[in-house]
Request: fold
Amino acid sequence: MNIDTVVPALGANLIWQTLLLAGVVGLALRILPRYAVGARYQISLVALLGSGLLFAAPFLPDLTPDLSIGIAPQSAPQAVQITETPVTENAARPIGSFNVNQPSPFPLGTLLLTVWMIGIAASLTRLGLAAKTSLTWARHSQKIELTNQAFLSKEIDLRRSAYVPTPLVLGFFRPVVLVPQDFDLNLKNPATRAVLEHEIAHLIRQDLWTNFVQRLILALLWWCVPLYWINAQICIEREKLCDDIAAKKVGAGRVLAAALVDLVDQHPKHQPLLAIGLHPRAHNLAERIHRLCKEHPMPKLSKRLLITTSIAVPALVGSLILAAPRAIAHSPTPPHASSHMDMEDISSLQYALFKATSLGRIDEVREMLAMGIDPAFHIHGDGSPLIIAAKIGHTEIADLLLNHGAQINRMTASDESPLINAVKANNLNMVELLVQRGADVSLGQVSNPRHRPEWRSPLSTAQKYRHTQIAQYLRNHGAVADTRKTAPRRIAPGPIVEGRLTSKFGVIRKNFDKTKHTGVDIANKEGTPIFAPADGTIIEVTDTYKDNAKWGHVVVLETPGGIKTIFAHLKDSQVSQGDFVRQGTQIARLGNTGKSTGPHVHIQTRKNGKLIDPLKAWPTLAR
Reply:
């Protein structure tokens, strides 16, 4: 992901997207009658919240492959483009010829990002000061104990304040209603009750929290001018909604209308952003008074009109999210790669090799391998360059990759092995090449369809797809359909780890904040071997599991049935991410790394994401 291309494109997209969003909101509000305040409020609020989703959309998984609405090809992230220029043997091009992380002569993206961050910091500082002001106003107010709060629909924390010329509400967890020093608190007065019921309506509706979210979105997208208009519509319709609630509680809208007229000249010059008041501003006061003074009930809104206008904004937001160009959609996810390159390298250099392989561009593949790009990486769900070469049947590229260190017998749960993929493609030439270069004809794994697990090996795959010629070739080279019945285990059957069970699953540990133990602990001396409990794939090997070093060195094994087993506090490991391992294979050694009270291994097991007792999942866990 290149900042100098992604940030300007993201900014330009958000400007026209929010402008389009504001246009649709304006059209919907123009179509809807003014008395339909509930629908008008919801439409405006959904639009503002949707703008936050539009900001996040480029960083979500790509739901529509190869869709690039909004960003022209030349402005797409450089890290995912490969030049169409043919490669010659004598050309000594630099890395920049692949358009990978090529520096811009003018770092526009960096400059815009800096300005953006400064604006966000200023906006958040403003919100922080508003919160401080609200707290100051609340602290310096005088609490009022009303003996007749039964006249109100809800008991409130009512206070007098010298700071406020008109009533308002503020505070999130302990909201208060502030009124001026000279405010009439005689609850037998209908006007007093009407004003307080208006503020109570804000509290009941949780408008303070909604307003807080609005302000956060405006702080994040402070430069998207159309959002300020949408936010203003939310505030206008929200006041009308609370007017209606208060008028219904008091029984007379004219009473609140008169109170609004009395308060219009006392509107505060400064009010905290996080507070909500009556807002009797002159430019929308006339409409509010007109609504409150109507004697007859509001007409019923047409269902067809309500449905049509209500789905317009969500439909637009959903369409824009689906169509949004993904800033990282085509970049391999670094945690699934086995290479030791950093994130920027994985998303550019290795992807360039992966893409060139998939397109069959042998000259580009040769040049990138000559530059030292390691082909022994794997993209979860897509495979490795060698798997791609096996799928498309490009024997020259496959041979080239093998010459530069591609792993021929690497088996993964989602992408299987290069040989199995060649068998699926019914390409005998590729199968012959892989076998001649050392592919294990009996290497397989248990696939896990929902209804019935099955053993998948090169021969069983050939038989399944009725590729008889390939099946016969594999048999001639010693393949069997079910290697589980004939292949010896690497280690004799036994416990997963030798040791003493020191802490069971689910027990409450007094020394750990009285939390339930999420796994089991087995203690022994450092270096005690740990074996795979079943055939599976190593999906993670890390020293910062869940971005936390307290787990120490960790290996995560995924086995059939949706089971993931975590081995933590290890001394070291004998496997790499993406490796397929057989049951009984040593995967690690017991250690004392991370937040540990002594040499032990913490084993945690999840089935379909839910914690289960490892002793029930693996009965032979320890001896």
